Amino acid sequence: MSFFNIDGQQIEFKQGQTIMQAAQDAGVYIPHLCFHPDFKAHGSCRVCIVQIKGLYRTACTTPVVESMEVININEEVQQHRLQLLEMLFIEGNHVCPSCEKSGSCTLQSVAEYCGLLSPSLTFRYPDKKVDASHADYLLDFNRCILCELCVRASKEVDKKSVFAITGRGLDARLMVNSTDGKLVNSTFDKLDRAASICPVGVILPKHQGFKTPIGQRKFDIKEINKREQD
Amino acid sequence: MADKIKIATVSLAGCFGCHMSILDIDEKIIDLVELVEFDRSPLTDIKQVSECDIGIIEGAVANAENVEVLKDFRKQCKTLVAMGACALSGGIPAMRNHFTLEQCLRESYVNGTGLENSCIPDDVELPMLLNKVYPVHQVVKVDYVMPGCPPPADMIWNLLTALLEGRKPEFSAEDIRYD
Amino acid sequence: MDYTDTIDTCEFVDSCVEPEKDTSLLLQYLIQIQYRYNFVPEDAISQLQHSLDLDVAHIKSVISFYSFLNSSFQGHYRILFSDNITDRMLGNQSLYEQLKTSLKNHKVDIGFTSCTGFCDQGPAMLVNGMAINKLDSKRITQIADLIQNNQPLELWPEGLFVKEENIQRSDIQFNSKAGDGKGIEAALENGSDAILKILNDSGLRGRGGAGFYTAKKWQFCKQAISNQHYVVCNADEGEPGTFKDRVLLSTDAHSVIEGMTICAAVIGATKGLIYLRGEYRFLVDKINEVLQKRRTEGLLGQNILGHQGFNFDIEIHLGAGAYICGEESALIESLEGKRGIPRVRPPFPVVDGYKNKPTVVNNVETFWSVSRIIVNGSHWFTRKGTPQSTGTRLLSISGDCERPGIYEYPFGTTLTEILKDCGGSDAQAVQMAGAAGTTVVPSGFDRAMSNEDLSTGGSFMVLGPQRNLMDLLQNFAQFFKHESCGFCTPCRVGTSIIADVIQRFKNAQGCEHDLKQLRDVCGLMNISCFCGLGCTVPTVFLDALNQHSQMFKDLMKTDSSTPCFNLEESVSEFKQITNPSGRGL
């Protein structure tokens, strides 16, 4: 049996596993956004950075090596995670009080867990759109964190490629694969994996906003660090 | 008896929800008034802020008057606290930032339904609206923040007692909520 | 060529698409379409969609990634001024204004682009993708006239397109000849282990900047079991201030191709690709001629030099304006016709590269040096240089010096010596290794160019005493913001924050909050970016913060503890809408 450790705790791992996979198997929570156990590591959000021998690596992309010593929680790592989360908040338009994903939003929950009080960076208030063309689903691009989980789910699970990323740099945007770019004219279906995978409030079912009362929402019931990822 | 700690509060572009949350500290407010004196605040109706120990800001910065009041607070208060989603990130008021000011005003005062003699109001008594809405920290330096919409009464109480005791306010992850 | 009609477009697209319908050629097709119509028409997109069986979103997402591809028609001429700091130092901004004014009544697209690789003969520009250098007011007038007369580019005077090589200093490598097939002969006769041994003994390290040992890279790739291996030449010389690869490809493509062929013999590849940056499109015909010549001479193609079963050929792939594609895994994505987003590593390209096959990606200069080392032996190479950085390397020198151009130097040469040679001894700073490199001030001029000390991918920009360092920082900040691929959070957001903050300091409007944002963002990017390019973005800004902290303090506004907020500007729209007389602040 092979072992490594995270913050001094000995953890078993299987050959070929990444730090994130082994940590999840062992029930150790490493904050993350773009990682999902059903998909190949993406490595774009960078929130799962950990320290190994003083260097920073993302837990989702780094394979475990026998006796590796991983630091998941110390002041430096926490600081850097907070900065990354701040960046995600200020580059989009995240208005938690008016968002129906609030309480079930991974970005919100990870940020609260990491202790982010509020971003101190300059807010950008980008001009992003809402696509309400589809009868059952709404797209609010203001909240997109470019984790590409919908892109990956649609391509790999649904075999449809309903979503793609366009532009580059700060202009990178989620786009819909249809001639006019509208969701209604794509092959999107409410039963798609892509329909339910968005960790934030971009892809939302219509006609049921704020249905779940405060106190009973996803992360009200169980905090993010205590849940198994779904 | 030592001098009471002076506190001023204001709601800029906000809904007064955060102030309601201050009142939500319930009976503890009686303990609080033993220790503090309120200067300018919706609770006192004093119009000008004078020298204070703590200033608490609710709401975003949306017009020239907000800027003036905020700068006054910064000048007069030793410690400045921003509270609530609007003060911290612009919140709901900042949702107009996707539009030009003219688009917003036309939609409300010219194209809106049921308007008579519709025109964009320009009475000089009205404060000038800013092109964009800003969070407080982009206009003045802020010392402490309390997230939430509104921040829970307990958080406000924690912050105030910490400041009164001369401690740095700290919140645990469980206290932090953005909605 | 005018944009005529749908039928023409569809026919043109069909004529581009090869019968194999290889989707990895998408970017190449888009480039051909762009240069035919000066944009990529919707008709072309739908035709490509059908003939390659691709999603429309995929095609559009690729177009949106590359700055040389347009999705709307902006005029028959697209003029992009090279906007490296060296171009700015030579006055490109006023030339841009001049051209814009002269052509204000003409439908023409005039803008800026990142360094086009002619810093030694700037200011430079690209007209419909073709390079014109040594711009001055007279040339701009001439160009404006040509455009006003609607002269097609093919009929513009050849004199406009003349390029200089400017090789200023030669050492062992320039002084030896290679590329005539002897290296390949040696490789085939002695076998791959012998070649790897020579390369290993020579200590040759990749010339792109990262400095990985070439022998080791080839060895890893050779060991990776697969039915196909690839050799890729990284000619995406995008680091601002470098142009040595252009000169090598233009004067001695034979050697570069020979180096690639030797690599193919070692790792067992049958196919090679040259990823040529879009700015060097003018070299395509020239390189193709060399490839053709080598095919006829038996140095490329089937049974090379009569060796049964040694088949290897090379194709050129063009880039289309994306700095990130210089990163090897992003380059591979781009070769596959996709957006140039770096890949998760591991796996590394040597085991899982182009089309998921083991792939060696080396810089132009690396292959060029291989061709010489194989002929002359490792000792010939190690006589020069330092223990960790053997041999010589090429520097592209530009900026405030009397003799800009290409210099071959043994590793270990000090900056003082280099500055003396190029006529830049009064420099206030040298920007080593491009925008992503380090700023060396005179106290560091006794330092040496080497992997142990000051490593470089070849860029060496001299800043004379009259320059303002803030101009350099602002130029680089804009560059990084423009070139960030947007994949990872710290680079996507961080480059924009840096650009905004630097701009405020440049306007003498900085504040303490800005200084903190700059330090925090630089620190974060340094450790957390997804790719090597992102991690090196902060270097130049951190150097400035450390070496010139007073400059930042001097550029703060009076009330530096208050964030930058201007009430007068912030009520401008309201004043305009309501037009109030007598309203005061």
Question: What labels describe this entry?
Answer:
heterotrimer, B: 179 residues, alpha/beta, Rossmann fold, five-stranded parallel sheet, elongated, C: 585 residues, Glutaredoxin, six-stranded mixed sheet, four-stranded mixed sheet, 14 strands
Q: Concise description?
A:
The complex is a heterotrimer of chains A (230), B (179) and C (585). Chain A is an alpha+beta fold.
Describe the structure.
The complex is a heterotrimer of chains A (230), B (179) and C (585). By secondary structure, chain A is of the alpha+beta class. Chain A has six helices and ten strands; from the N terminus they run E-E-H-E-E-E-H-H-E-E-H-E-E-H-E-H. In chain A, the strands form three sheets. Chain A has a five-stranded mixed sheet, with helices on both faces. Chain A has a three-stranded antiparallel sheet with strand order 6-7-10. Chain A has a two-stranded antiparallel ribbon with strand order 8-9. In chain A, helix 2 (75-91) packs antiparallel against helix 3 (106-114). The two termini of chain A are 28 Å apart. Chain B has 179 residues and is an alpha/beta fold. Chain B has a single domain, classed as Rossmann fold (3-Layer(aba) Sandwich). Chain B is elongated. The mean pLDDT of chain B is 92. Chain C has 585 residues and is an alpha/beta fold. In chain C, the strands form three sheets. Chain C has a six-stranded mixed sheet with strand order 5-11-10-14-12-13, sandwiched between helices. Chain C has helices at residues 6-16, 26-37, 42-52, 56-65, 85-89, 92-102, 137-148, 182-190, 192-202, 214-223, 244-267, 284-296, 328-335, 364-376, 378-382, 415-422, 469-483, 489-506, 512-528, 532-536, 539-547, 549-554, 567-570, 572-578; strands spanning 78-82, 109-113, 125-127, 130-132, 167-169, 230-235, 271-276, 313-318, 359-363, 392-399, 405-410, 429-432, 438-440, 459-463. Chains in contact: A-B, A-C, B-C. The B-C interface holds B 64, 67, 74, 100-102, 105, 120-122, 124, 128-132, 134, 137-141 and C 513, 561-563, 565, 567, 569-580, 582-583, 585.
